[in-house]
Design brief:
Layout (H helix, E strand, L loop, with lengths): L15 H19 L5 H13 L5 H10 L6 H13 L3 E4 L4 E4 L9 E6 L5 E5 L6 H9 L8 E5 L2 H8 L1
Parallel strand pairs: 3-5
Antiparallel strand pairs: 1-2, 3-4
Helix pairs in contact: 1-2, 2-4, 3-4
């Protein structure tokens, strides 16, 4: 039986301003439901990542926060990123030591990331751990997988099209 894999959002054409607005509204609602504080800095960091649709490092985020009138000390960005990652609003892209907004916040999922090596755009989709070779190996050894992150590097459709020209 093959798992259904949703198409990646980062490379797909969509109404970007609606995407950002809906995600911010959803984050605010989830925080209110859980008694979490989505402070102005945390909200701005999430907004920055949602607007970019690509992975950004903490110092790039810090520069954008400073430009928006927020603090310029590294702990400002790191604390916001830690909160957002802990509560499933963002993911850390290990390969790039950077962060990207989650496109499935609030859902338990095993993300897989496709990272364009030319423009740093990141698309998130689901990986199927339970029926995969990794899931089978874990089950055979008695290991319980709690979290997996799959990252693939390549060229996004837009950059591939540009390279043809």
């Amino acid at each position: 039986m093959s798992a259904q894999i949703s198409p990646p959002i980062g490379f797909a054409q969509h109404d970007h301003s609606a995407c950002v607005t809906e995600a911010l509204t959803s984050a605010e609602e989830r925080c209110a439901e859980r008694g979490l504080r989505l402070t102005p800095v945390r909200r701005k960091v999430l907004e920055i990542l949602l607007q970019e649709h690509r992975a950004l490092g903490a110092y790039a985020i810090l520069d954008l926060l400073r430009d928006a009138g927020y603090g310029s000390q590294p702990p400002v960005a790191y604390r916001a990123l830690d909160f957002l990652a802990e509560h499933g609003f963002v993911h850390k892209i290990e390969r790039l030591n950077a962060f990207v907004a989650c496109v499935h916040p609030g859902e338990v999922h095993s993300p897989a990331f496709m990272i364009c090596r030319m423009c740093d755009t990141v698309a998130e989709t689901q990986s199927a751990t339970s029926g995969s070779m990794l899931g089978s190996a874990a089950k055979a050894s008695g290991f319980q997988i709690e979290r997996t992150v799959m990252e693939a590097e390549g060229i996004c459709p837009a950059c591939a099209e540009k390279s043809k020209s």
